[in-house]
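ARCHIVE CARD
Drawer: 12
Card no.: 0347
Subject: one protein chain, sequence and derived structure
Cross-reference: see card 0346
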Amino acid sequence: MLLEWSSRYDHLREVTRDDVLAHLETVHGSQRRSMLIALRSLFGRAKKSGTIFEDPTSRIRVGQQELGIVQPLASEQVQSSVSAATRPDDRLILALAAVHAARTGAICRLQLDDLDIGNRRLTVDGRVCPLDALTLRLALAWLEYRARRWPDTANPHLLVNKQTALAAGPISGNSAAAALRGQAATLEKLRVDRQLEEALIHGPDPLHLAEVFGLDEKTAIRYANSARQLLEQPAETATVASPRTHGPTPAEHTDRPSGSR
């Protein structure tokens, strides 16, 4: 596009809104969106530096990007991640993502006080969740390892490592995700899969998803719509309508409590 304009114009100041619209008509979907974003960046910078006086991309709408159907993870993908999580902290991290749909950042921020063993509750970014038997077992195993490995640490975070045990900060997102690096079922995909699973098991109700996971309206609707379309596909109904039985530890493959909250 810029090469074509350079054959007709001597300066970016000469490019008009009609020139931009004419090129945008030749592309669609994500290509149109990417092109307009790139042009906005170019002309926005040029206007800020005084190279041009008017931005020809102003008031041209990018348009909402169409999102595809969220697809469930295959059992073998999940089992591969389960096998990769061999340490107590990695197993607990995997369970927090796969059972409680916790984001990586939220997992890193968890405090010891967020784990209420007596009342079987877990607080994730202000959202109180029932503490299922599997996560409880993994949490107790981690706490035992933590106490043995770093008995004198004063770090208030639930998860620590050899760097943070000597300080008070959280572990990094890279550290939390390290065990699943290169796996098809990453922490983020496990989190997404858990939310989709809830919609498949309990029905595509965005209000239910918003209540269980604290999702915003648009995200809850997206998961609900994906579940509805998956359930309406005759060839896949028998597969996706039944809860998969995968769990965060190699010895607990059938312990993942689908829809436990």
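Annotation on reverse: The chain has twelve helices and three strands. The beta strands are 115-116, 121-124, 127-130.
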